[in-house]
UniProtKB/TrEMBL annotation:
Compartments it resides in: Membrane
Record's keyword terms, sorted: Disulfide bond, Membrane, Oxidoreductase, Quinone, Redox-active center, Transmembrane, Transmembrane helix
Protease in keyword set: no
Record organism: Bifidobacterium tsurumiense
Record InterPro entries: VKOR (IPR012932), VKOR_Actinobacteria (IPR041714), VKOR_sf (IPR038354)
Protein name from the UniProt record: Vitamin K epoxide reductase
Chain segments annotated as transmembrane: 45-66, 111-130, 137-157, 163-187, 208-228
Molecular-function annotations in GO: oxidoreductase activity; quinone binding
Length: 236
């Protein structure tokens, strides 16, 4: 389609050029050009959810770090979240999975990395709430970072479920908050950043609110897995 321009002469003799209504079609690759409509798809909502989830994860990481230091000082002391043999923070904290990263003869608790990572996610969520237009590569890195955090928390969850055979209540809260965090950043990458402009099915997925159903099933499946594995032992 060719662009049609019209010219008109002003009173002072200058020529003004205007374009027809169809001369500048919207470029879907431009930020905000093809955003999904509705409050649930707006930057304020999706980044607010990401901020809350990241803040909860950061708070839990601080608590887990404090409990790690407490166990280091008093190895035989029980922690406040030691409910029973199944719900036991100290059992999980004393396993090798809780600090499997070693460097120069030192071991680093996972919670310390959680503080660093979640601080970054909190900052990104706050920036998103300002409606700042960030580079595309930054948004892609944010999504992959949240995916890495999700895989990391799920690896720890499966280790607790099937290897350590004990669950840490704070770790469970961290896993669920990381899950919601990933859901929020995934939503933002499509609705606000338009990262998948060529994948129309993703936009349809969010436009029809299918993500709400998938997210709900996801959370319920995690809860059901825990209940089936341990059942009454959780409160026994």
């Amino acid at each position: 389609m060719t662009t049609q321009n019209t010219q008109s002469q002003n009173n002072d003799g200058t020529v003004a050029q205007s374009s027809s209504p169809h001369s500048n079609p919207t470029d879907a690759s431009q930020p905000g050009a093809a955003q999904l409509k509705g409050w649930r798809h707006g930057a304020t909502w999706v980044y607010a959810v990401a901020l809350i989830a990241s803040a909860v994860a950061l708070f839990v990481s601080f608590i887990l770090s404090a409990e790690t230091l407490q166990l280091a000082r008093h190895p035989n002391q029980s922690l406040g979240c030691d409910v029973n043999s199944v719900l036991s923070c100290s059992t999980v904290a004393q396993s090798w999975q809780s600090e499997f990263i070693h460097f120069a003869g030192l071991s680093f608790p996972n919670a310390f990395f959680g503080i660093a990572a979640e601080s970054v996610f909190v900052t990104i969520a706050v920036i998103g709430l300002t409606h700042a237009r960030l580079p595309r590569w930054f948004s892609i890195c944010t999504w992959f970072g949240s995916l890495a955090a999700l895989f990391y928390s799920y690896w720890l969850f499966t280790q607790s479920m099937f290897v350590i055979n004990a669950l840490c209540p704070w770790c469970l809260l961290l896993m669920f908050s990381t899950t919601v965090q990933f859901m929020a950043f995934s939503h933002a990458s499509i609705s606000d950043r338009n990262l998948a402009s060529k994948a129309g099915w993703l936009r349809t997925y969010y436009r029809l609110n299918y993500d709400l159903m998938v997210d709900a099933v996801w959370i319920v499946a995690l809860i059901a897995l825990i209940a089936v594995k341990y059942g009454p032992a959780l409160i026994g």
